[in-house]
Amino acid sequence: MQAVLFDLDGTLLDSTRLLLDGYRHTVLSCLGIATTDEDWLPLMGLPLREQMAHFSPERADEMVRVYRGFYQREHDARVAAYPHAADVLAELRQMGLALGVVTSKKTHFAWRGLRITGLADAVSAVVGEDDTVEHKPHPAPILEALRRLAVAPGQAVMVGDSPHDVAAAHAAGVAAIAALWGPFSRDALEPLNPTAYAHALAAVPGIVRSLCVHT
After folding, report:
1. I need a surface site. Which of 41, 74, 98, 118 has the fewest CB within 10 A?
2. CATH code for 3-14+80-213?
3. Of residues 7, 9, 14, 131, which has the active-site annotation?
4. Contact 154/1 with Cβ under 8 angstroms?
5. pLDDT digits (tens, 9 = 90+) for 52-67
């Protein structure tokens, strides 16, 4: 094993409440529709415009602008890393592993969240929505991150909280660790047949060590 890739929101960053508040604010402001968290969970992990088009293809661009305005106003005060995130990344680096982030948000916002939470220095590559034409669950973002890290798919693992993360990992030929501390339950992730499950971020280094033994 040579590299570990992480999803960002719901995996490294405890930002689920911020995202859901932004989604619900946007649909209410633009369409006058009150949505619930449950309406949005199946869409989490997809690119923003695709999420908005689910509710109104004709007004998706407007909704993206409204959402981004909300997100920019709220982001810095509300974004936080999950407990032990910095220690986990440091331990993985001490194991000689390259670290990357693969996210469906804009790359500059991904780096901003990493800097605010003190995680940026541990990460060598970030691939965001604007870096590839195809997005998770397509394998392209994962393959682009591995290209930047100069690591073959068979020597990497992806850690993510959503079914889209697991599906993208499988499509890229990368082992997948399902993150159960995010918004998705084991029942939601199990049909994707992840390589392993982690109940806490702090468990990831041990799982990676186990995968190293078997690869």
Report:
1. 118
2. 3.40.50.1000
3. 7
4. no
5. 999 999 999 999 999 9
